[in-house]
Each structure stands twice: as C-alpha cells, then as structure tokens.
Amino acid sequence: MTAMTRRTWLAVLGLLPAAGLVSWAEGSDKNRKKETHTWEDIPPRELIRRRHLPDVALVTHQGKTVRFYEDLVKDKKVVINFVYTRCQGVCVPVTANLVRVQKLLGDRVGRDIFFYSITLKPEEDTPEALEKYAALHGVGPGWLFLTGKPEDIELLRKKLGFTYANPVEDADKSNHVGMIRTGNEPYLRWAACPGLAHPAWIAKDILLEMDGPTRPAATASAS
Amino acid sequence: MHLLKKSRVPKLWQTASRNRQEIVKAGLNRRELFKMGLLTSSGYLAAKSGLSAWASGGCDAGECQLGCSPATTPFIDPLRIPPILPSRPVTDLNPAPQECPNNAINPATGLPFEGRGQYNGVLRPGTDCFQFFKRFPPEDFFITRMRENKRFRITSDPHIPDQTIWGFNLGGNDPAITPGPTIVDQYDGARVVRRFNELPPQAQNGGFGVPETSTHFHNFHDAPESDGSPCRFFFRGQYFDYHRTMQTPGFDDPNTDPAERLLESQSSLWYHDHRVGHTAENVYKGLLGFELLFNQFDTGNENTGFRLPSFPQFDIPLALTDKLIDPGTGKICFDLFGFDGLVGDKLLVNGVLQPFLEVQKRRYRFRILDGGPSRFYELFLTNPDNPKQSIPYFAIANDGNLLPRPVRFPTSSGSGARIGVAERVDIIIDFKALARDLGVKRLWLENRLEQVNGRGPTGKILPAGRRENVLVEFRLAGNAVRDNSVDPADPNVRFYALPPRPTPRITRRFRFERGNGQWQVNGRFMDCDEIRFTVNRNSAERWILQNNSGGWQHPIHIHLEEFQIVRRNGQLIQPGDVEFSRKDVVRLQFNEQIELLMRFRDFRGDYPMHCHNTIHEDHAMMLLWAVQDDANDNNTRP
Hints:
Mean pLDDT of chain B: 92
Oligomer: heterodimer
Radius of gyration of chain B: 24 Å
Shape of chain B: globular
Low-confidence stretches of chain A: 10-35, 217-223
Strand content of chain A: 15-25%
Structural class of chain A: alpha/beta
Strand content of chain B: 25-35%
Low-confidence stretches of chain B: 1-57
Number of strands of chain A: 7
Helix content of chain A: 25-40%
Distance between the termini of chain A: 51 Å
Helix content of chain B: under 10%
Largest interface: A-B, 80 and 95 residues
Number of strands of chain B: 38
C-alpha cells in the first residue's frame, strides 16, 4: 500500500453501508409473516435425552434394578464406558486406567461423580460375573457395572455413540470402542476422551467437564 | 382439492416438507410442481396420492441426522458479507494491554480479569507474558465480544425459524454474528486483539456449545500465548489479549534472508474457536470469522501491486459450513455423541442458506474457506442453463498464500479444486469472459464431491447442476464494466515464488490412525500436559504424515508456520500443481503418505498438530510439540 495508510484505507471501507448489519443480525422482517409454521418447542435438555439417553432398565453388579436415565443419569455427573468381563483386548487397560482415575478423583466418585461400565455381552455377564470383575479390579464405591436385556444394551450402545459405521467392524466385540463418555447432564455438557489416555489427563478432563459450568475462581481448581 | 394448510398439524407439515424435499431431490422445481398442481402458492405441498413414492423413511422430532433436515428453498437470500472489525489506536484501550497477563481477580466474577496465563483452566502465575512485546509494541487494537444471538436468520423463508448462534460482534453492545466481523490488516505495526467471552452460561447453551473458548488465528505466525491454543481457553466474564507482531517468519532468525521474508506473506486467514475437546460444537455454533492481510503486492487495489480485484467490492470471502436441522424444532442441531464426524445436509455460505450474489461482468476474487466440521468440498462452476459446459476458474492462493502462479480449474483431468476442513482456496472468476464466450447468465458454485458420513469423501464426483449441491448462485447483471485487475489466464502472471526449501535437521514420522474407536497420532492421544517432542528454534525438519487406512481421511493442520508439501505418496509436487504452495493444512487421504518441510522460527513454546475434522480433533487426534533453543530432541517417531 503505497499512497494510502492503513487507517485511511480502512476509513474508506468504513463507508460501506452499516445498515446491512441490522438485517444481518436481526433478520429481514419483511418476509416474516404471521403464517409461520408452528415448530415444536422442545427444551434442549429434553432433546439430548430423546436422542441419546433411553430410560431402559438395567441391573447393577449388586443385583439392583435401575432405570438408565431416571436413576443413573438425570441431574448427575457421569462417566460411561462399555466393557465385558471376558474381554482380552482394550477393556483390560481401560478398566485399569479408570481404576487409577477413580483413585485420583478420590471421594468425589460416588459423591457427585458416578462411573458406569456397561457390559457389551449381557448374555454372559450376569450381575454376579460383573461383581466378580469389579472386585478383581479393585473398583471402589460410586462405580456401577451394568447388565440388562440384550436389546436394551444394544439400544444404549447405539444411542451413546459407541458404534462403528462399518457393520462388520461394529459386530466385532473384541475390537469395541474404548472411549470414555463424560456427561454433565443438567448442564447439557457431553464429551468423550480415549480410555487409553494417561489417567492423570483423564481425571483432569473429567473434572473440567464436571466443574466447568459452576467453576469458582480459576485458581481454586489448581491441582 | 384438499390442501394442507399451514399451522395445522405439525406432523403433517413435516411429512409434506419431507415429501417436498424428496421431490426437489428428484429434480422438479417449483414451477414444474406448480404446473402439476402439487405446490400451493405458500409453498406447501398439496396432498396428492403418489407423492409417497418420494418419501424417505421419515424422521421424528429431535432426530439430528443427515437427510432429516426440513426442506428449504435455495437462492432466496443475498449473500451476506461480514462487516469489517474497526481498529483504533492502542492508547484508547482501557485497561491498557500488558506484557504479562492482567490476572488480578475481578470481584464481579471471582476470576482473573484476563484469561491469558491460564492453562487448561488453571492459572499458572508468571506465564504467557507476550514474547517480543517490547520489540513490537502494539500501535492499534481490535476489540470484539463473543455473544449469543437468538434471532439469527439463515434464510428469509418464514417457515424456517430464527436460529441461536454464538458469534463475534463489533466490540460494542451490538449483536454477535457468524461469521464474525472480518479482521482486515496489514504488515505495518503490531496490534492487540482483545476478545471478551460474554457467552451464556453452560446450561443455557441451547443444546450444544461450551462457553469456554480459545480463538485461534489460523494460521498467522503467532507466539503460543497469542495463538489461541487449545489448552489456553478462558471463561465467561474474562477477556483475553492476543499480541500480534504482524511479522512474517524469520524476524528473529539470523539464517533467514530478510528479502525472503516477503515471500512468506499471507493473504486469507481465519479465526475460530479451538477449545480442547469442544472445538467442533463451538465452531459449528458460529465461532469463526475471516482475517485478510494486505501488503505492497496484495494491496486490495486492482491498480497496484499484483493487481488483484479490488477489496471489498470485488474481493469477497466465502465461508462454507454444512448444518443439520432438527425436523421437530427447526433449529440447527449437533450430534454431541458422534465420533466419526458430522456431515450436514444444509449448505450455508457466510451463514446464509444457499445464497445468491449479483455480480458485475468483470473479474472477482473469492476467498473460499472450508469451515467444517467434517465435510470436504470439490468446487466446480456450473451454468444451470447449460450444465454440460465446462466453466473455468483460476486458483490464486492455497491456504491463503498466493501461489507462484495461477492454476486453472477444472484441471486437464477434469478435477475441481478440492479443500478439506480449514483449507482455503482463493479463486478468480471472470464473469465478463464467461458471459461473452459461453453466454452465461447465472452461474452456480457447486460442491460435487460426494460425502455421506464424517469419515471422508467417497471420491465420487456428482453430476453437475444439482440444486442441493449449490453453494452460491451468481447472477450476472448489466453490461461488461471497467476491470483493471490482472487476468489470471495470462501465462505470464506471477505472484510470490516459493521460499527456498530449507535443509531439514531431522525426519520425524507421524501415523494418524484409529484403534478401538480412539483417534490417535503414533498410538497416543491429546494431553494438555504432555509435550511429545521439542524442535530446535530456527531450524527446519522433514515430517512424514501417514494414513494407513482406506476408510478415513484427515485434514492435518500444523500451527506456527506454513510448510511446503514435498511429496504426496512419493510423487514430487511439481510447479503448476495447486499444492506447489505454502500450506498450513494438508489432506491426508486414504492410504496416503505426505512428506513436508517446515521451519520453526522466532517464537518459543508449545504448539499443536491435529486433525482438523473437528470431531476427530475433539476426540484426541492431536499432539503438542514445542520450540526451544538447542533442544536437540532426536525422537523420530514421537
């Protein structure tokens, strides 16, 4: 730019119609007539529930029957993954990782953060088998292992996004998705992190998801 | 004949709208439907038997999936062009920008006033002071506020409701827009950009969006503390100052020839949210905008320098984004639970659904951005009145960097310019020549690359002239007008030569893959607390990027500097190829291997490399590396 300084040049640009901005931000009213179609006014939280959080019946490793949405997720901060007890693959290190994460989170697990591991093989994972698995891995309180009707589990797996687009890949349980889903249900905040990431990072990530919406001063969460 | 009247039973309307969408897909336009008596003047379908042959399986309210969005009408709204963010002398900025962050606690929020100095949500006192602040003291500043806008229109079609977006404003009490105001700047003095986070509380996000943000300047040469890096997000009620030296790379490198620094000049950049783990939903919600840079060659004036079409009348940015709309609520929706990627069935350009633009018969420059989250585009021009015509255009910049010389599209093999997420291509269309030589009256900018899911495009090129693939309809008006801009068809046209290729100190390899549904780089995952490797400041390296999958494609982005692609699958990138260029994103396609050369000049600290399919990015397909003096880290597979 030889003859013009940046500021004079921008001043010229400033002559562009500012009026256009109003219609940009507010929309053009001239086309908005009263005949507008009535859309359904569904609260966003309800939409997330409908899309992803079916209220299927599940049985815990302690033998208690629970509803997935009403009892386990609604108004709660949750960490969800899928495992099965005879798994020789990714479940083993992911469960071991989550045990370390649970220790890092201390008494918050069971107090205001809840861990749920849902079986991918409900036909072989009875509550008793799950209880044995939990004991074997040294799982602490606040962490439920869940089984249920195969069709309910399958629905849950799909709704929670633990699927592969390729049906052959999707059917292979030994190669299942090792992600960990985090949800802060009342705050409409959902994310996921790899189950094989460093436990310290998973723990930090979980705390950011759970405490982010209500965080006090940033200094307060220094670890 | 029985008509479906508006505001009757919503379910019936939805069925009708689905049917209409299917009809549109089948290639019948409004006039034809009118003739057939199937469409009423208000746009609703008449209930007639036989329509169900077109009907899809049907979607319920709340479903957020490809193919479920309600019918919309293209080309009823003009293209919007984002306004320019004003700048002012830095002496007007209160409080004044500080070299080290203003981390005093704001009693109103309990948080530090400024979010800089926080890392992963935690204050790290004494960190993230601006590098080179004394050497490049800011002269001017920009100010903008991230806000919600609940009355945003993507179309004037009264059947589609107002949308809630998050965007940026002009710095005052004005509403936010998306794309945000364009930052227009030059390489002539340092600046500060102050961004306020005034987004609503988390629970009022309307279904997606996290009000913790870090705005990345993609891909200006900035220090980590001013780069908008993924782990440096800040909170509602805070501001964040970004210091911009406005220097091309090499200002603090004794090995860079000052004359070569001009060849690193950038033209078309953008800014977007980069909050680790939540980038996709935040950018999809609207947190993006353009930044355009000019200098003594790319002047914005077609009578000077490279004589590119004058800004802003004939030089227009186009941000391409694709959306899904909930068939029940009519609101843009986002799948928070997907790992593969999100592909929308509604194409928006600058926030407007399939707009039109009236153009004069002369040359225009369009700066086209793939705004994501997951779609790849291959761009063609089609004359809707004669779709068989091959319509040429010229690429002049790749990723916002002017090419050594213009590249004509379609290529000799018939390909259009292909862009993955975050890639940019600047093109010149000569509407005068097209009107004169081909009789063009209207022209469609189309994406003809088929993509049915977030995994990447199928590679199939769809037929020309399908309305659902049109991004913008250009309408040629009036007679040919005065045009002093350069003719890109002239074989003698030259822009910047590529900077000389440096000698790499080391070769490092990076494999981008998925294991057990987890996106990874070299078998590991994003972690804000882990720097994978450290490069020597003011050195160069060869990086090999590998994708061993035939099922996925990844647009890979590297911060800090522009790199050069040397080989794609072993084949040298030759002059005349649009990838014979400076780049900041490279498409790592099915089973591909990319060899690139990159320099690491001036700044110290941490930067990311990541997949820019923002869904993959949010699920840990990212790593951090750092620049330090004499690190001598020789890990070849970090």
